[in-house]
Design a protein that fits this description.
The chain is an alpha/beta fold. It contains 17 helices and 27 strands. Strand 26, helix 16 and strand 27 (about 515) form a beta-alpha-beta unit. The structure holds 5'-O-[(R)-(benzoyloxy)(hydroxy)phosphoryl]adenosine. 5'-O-[(R)-(benzoyloxy)(hydroxy)phosphoryl]adenosine binds near residues 316, 338, 340, 436 and 525. This is (2,3-dihydroxybenzoyl)adenylate synthase. It comes from Streptosporangium fragile. InterPro entries: AMP-bd_C (IPR025110), AMP-bd_C_sf (IPR045851), AMP-dep_synth/lig_dom (IPR000873), ATP-dep_AMP-bd_enzyme (IPR050237).
């Protein structure tokens, strides 16, 4: 008999089964600590060491702890109560970090939206979470978030407060929420600490509940896997509201080790390189589309990057060619990270051999991460074969937030999360990501992996960036379109087909059409946005 799927709690958290929870506690993965109490512990242990460098400001661990207490009191004064959801849409600025811990101290739950989200996503997330407050910057990257807040108020009935980091306009300044620290009841470490937004490129975003103790483990174990110490200086270039830069090991992992977090306003080399030089940054994280831009910039930018030890790459597939070029160009090691806001993290080890680092997406973080690789019928594939990755473990969710219908198909009855990622596992335990279950082009009865075609496309010297997409085609169902950002002279369709055939690719996987674009559209964290790309190219008539 298959076990019944567990019911979500009133908080929206789908709990782990009781015996599994006991096991995770016994193993020490779950240590009963809340994010708020962790900060208090770090303040005791690391005191006057610098926790955070943001803009012109440098905050010690003690100062960060004190500010979190004062903001928690200010929020409580506004009526923000334990369990309330607070929509947070802040860029990489100091108040993000203070707010995160202030909410943790209160037991209120941040919904971590990304700066690039707009009214469609924000409206949906506000209604889904029934958020009582919305925290924004005044302006960022040329966009006025107070206008977005005004629009949101019209469609989010539960929203009572708009709090602004910066000039508040008609709303309340976050800086004014400052009170004498209050004695606050500590939340339960098994409760939701934060809600992350799913990174999926299909459908509306979903919310991922992460508990205090599962997220604490996520950060602590990641810090260990990445060799962080009190000497670590982590540069957050990607949005800190994204799991990667927040806790893999990111901001929170760096704090567990007593290191220093430096916030960069953007991942552009022009912002990041001066910070790497000035703060002697030792580790940072990027999504793969940004790495070639850093490699190019490093050729002419005089900034001293010699402090950099590790460049983490994750979020989408990193090409082996780019991975191999990094040590020579930036003087650091690559660490591949195959992760998901839903939980599971895989890291290459810093001392894996260079080819393993260049060609695999790492191994699971935790000995109790349970992975299955299954075929379309849900049966385990022969070891080494490609299939969909299913996972459960001490920091992988058992259900999305308030999404009963979706949960019925996104999880197996025995609690595995169906990732939608196609992987194969090497005898060493390293994973290779082979694409997405749904990122295929269905051409003339064949299902073609976009990822496979892209690997060959990117190997062409005239292609700087590229993607393979399916476009509607009456005869064949879909036609395969190669979308190319040229690097030098782009190939013609015929040249590209000859080139790919020369690499041994089957004829039915060759592109039917090529389109050149100046830029590929990206998701809020910087991954290639296939849906937007299909829309963009569909509007053009074939070249
Ligand atoms: C990270 O998290 P999300 O939630 O934005 O996206 C997760 C999805 C994965 O399911 C996979 O499809 C893809 O992004 N992905 C990768 C990858 N890392 C993530 N695909 C190929 N190679 C990789 N290295 O993207 C994320 C979360 C934590 C750490 C790093 C990335």
């Amino acid at each position: 008999m298959t076990p019944a799927a567990p019911e979500p709690l009133p908080s929206g958290l789908t709990p782990w089964p009781a015996d599994v929870a006991i096991h995770y506690r016994e193993k020490g993965y779950w240590d009963g600590r809340t994010l708020g109490s962790l900060l208090a512990g770090w303040a005791d242990e690391y005191g006057d060491r610098i926790a955070l460098v943001a803009g012109g400001e440098r905050l010690s661990y003690r100062e960060l702890d004190r500010r979190a207490d004062r903001l928690a009191a200010g929020l409580a004064g506004q009526g923000v109560a334990p369990g309330d959801r607070v929509l947070v849409q802040l860029p990489n600025i100091g108040p993000f970090v203070v707010l995160l811990f202030a909410l943790a101290r209160l037991g209120a739950v941040p919904v971590l939206t990304l700066p690039a989200h707009r009214i469609t996503e924000i409206g949906h997330l506000a209604r889904l979470s029934q958020a009582v407050a919305y925290v924004i910057p005044d302006e960022h990257a040329g966009f006025d978030y107070r206008d977005l807040a005004a629009a949101l108020l019209k469609e989010a009935p539960d929203l009572r407060h708009v709090l602004v980091a910066g000039a508040p306009g008609p709303f309340t300044a976050l800086a004014d929420l400052d009170g004498e620290p209050l004695p606050l009841a500590e939340p339960d470490a098994a409760d939701i600490a934060l809600l992350l937004v799913s990174g999926g490129t299909t459908g509306v975003p979903k919310l991922i509940p992460r508990t205090h103790q599962d997220y604490g483990y996520n950060a602590r174990a990641s810090a260990r896997a990445c060799g962080l110490s009190a000497e670590t200086v982590y540069l957050a270039c990607l949005p800190v509201a994204h799991n990667f830069a927040l806790a893999c090991p990111g901001v929170l992992g760096t704090f567990t080790a007593g290191g220093t977090v430096v916030l960069s306003p953007s991942p552009a080399a022009g912002d990041a390189f001066p910070l790497i030089e000035a703060e002697r940054v030792t580790i940072t994280a990027l999504v793969p589309p940004l790495i070639p831009l850093w490699l190019e910039a490093a050729e002419w930018d005089p900034a001293d990057l010699s402090s950099l030890r590790v460049l983490q790459a994750g979020g989408s597939k990193l090409s082996a060619e780019v991975a191999r070029a990094v040590p020579g160009a930036l003087g650091c090691t690559v660490q591949q990270v195959f992760g998901m806001a839903e939980g599971l993290l895989n890291y290459t080890a810093l001392d894996d051999d260079p080819e393993t680092i260049a060609t695999t997406q790492g191994r699971p973080l935790c000995p109790d991460d349970e992975l299955r690789v299954v075929d379309a019928d849900g049966a385990d594939v022969t070891p080494g074969e490609v299939g969909e990755l299913l996972v459960r473990g001490p920091y992988t969710l058992r259900g999305y937030y308030r999404a009963a219908e979706h949960n019925a198909t996104a999880f197996t009855p025995d609690g595995y999360y169906c990732s939608g990622d196609l992987v194969r596992v090497l005898p060493s335990g390293h994973l290779i990501v082979e694409g997405r279950v749904k990122d295929t082009i269905d051409r003339g009865g064949e299902s073609i992996s976009a990822e496979e075609v892209e690997a060959h496309l990117l190997a062409h010297p005239g292609v700087r960036r590229g993607a393979a997409i399916g476009l509607p085609d009456t005869g064949r169902g879909e036609q395969l379109c190669a979308v190319v950002v040229p690097g030098g002279t782009p190939p013609t369709l015929q040249e590209l087909r000859v080139f790919m055939m020369g690499r041994g690719l089957a004829a039915f996987k060759l592109p039917d059409r090529i389109e050149t674009v100046d830029e590929l559209p990206v998701t809020p964290v910087g991954k290639i946005d296939k849906r937007a790309l299909v829309r963009m190219v569909s509007e053009r008539s074939p070249a």
